[in-house]
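Troubleshooting: if your tokenizer reports a length mismatch, compare your output against this known-good record of 98 residues.
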Amino acid sequence: MVFTYGVVSLGLLYVVVSEVAVDRLAVAAMIVLVGILALVWNDSAMADLSAGVEDMDEEVSASAMGRNFAKAPFVMFRVLNLVVILGIAVTQLMALYN
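Known-good structure output:
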């Protein structure tokens, strides 16, 4: 989803900054809806990863990888995901309406 969101965002950014005559409302709707889709998709994947910490068996949780995985700041990753996607959407909307 990250690759798809990146490609779609770059395409939308091209439409925003180019001189092509487009319906602003339609482009704004795409920016918002694609951002929401990416946010929900990425957040649910991170929630699944976070839940995986609780499902590790003794052998995995005792390994170096398991200990490192248990220390991962999943809440921070989820907040960062929100900030990045909102930042991209807001800057694209600002460029569209300026």
